[in-house]
């Protein structure tokens, strides 16, 4: 059975870049649901976009997160997730007020340590898929810290260092946890 490890945190905080490095090092990775949804919605003229219909976007992210977990269950070793089901459930709670975090934890079995990419203004960049500003990204980060903390996860704030050194930090932490 694989060990699911979440890399969460601030939008624009270097998560995807870190996942690319981990993939380069031979680890299995699952891309962020949000970016995949935005690309699909933009390609096909859909409205399940965080700046148009945040609730529909979050519901799609929850559904995609479930599918990602099911698909990754067939992997061996560690599988790194760029965000995941809990992030999507936190977004859905924020958009709708529906209490769904506790339900999400039962659907995604993840390692107790969650790596959080903190706000990092020096690398934050908006684009066609990330239209919000750093203030909004910071607020999202605080909601995610609260959500993971409330669910009892151990948060490991990633240092603001090179991507290679960040990957080394993460791997060393997981080795200390007995996963490597």
Automatic annotation (TrEMBL):
InterPro entries: NadR/Ttd14_AAA_dom, P-loop_NTPase. This is AAA family ATPase. Pfam families: AAA_28 (PF13521). Residues 5-166 form the NadR/Ttd14 AAA domain. It comes from the Bacteria. Transmembrane segments: none annotated.
């Amino acid at each position: 059975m694989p060990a699911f490890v979440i890399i969460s945190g601030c939008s624009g905080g270097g998560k995807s870049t870190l996942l690319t490095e981990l993939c380069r090092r031979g680890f299995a990775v699952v891309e962020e649901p949000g970016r995949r949804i935005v690309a699909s919605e933009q390609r096909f003229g859909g409205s399940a976009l965080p700046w148009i219909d945040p609730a529909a976007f979050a519901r799609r992210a929850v559904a995609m997160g479930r599918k990602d977990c099911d698909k990754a269950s067939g992997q061996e070793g560690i599988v790194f997730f760029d965000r995941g089901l809990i992030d999507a459930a936190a977004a859905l709670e924020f958009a709708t007020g529906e209490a769904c975090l506790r339900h999400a934890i039962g659907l995604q079995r993840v390692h107790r340590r969650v790596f959080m990419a903190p706000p990092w203004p020096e690398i934050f960049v908006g684009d066609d898929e990330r239209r919000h500003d750093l203030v909004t990204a910071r607020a999202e980060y605080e909601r995610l810290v609260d959500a993971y903390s409330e669910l009892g996860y151990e948060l490991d704030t990633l240092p603001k260092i090179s991507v290679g050194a960040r990957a080394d930090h993460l791997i060393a932490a997981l080795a200390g946890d007995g996963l490597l």
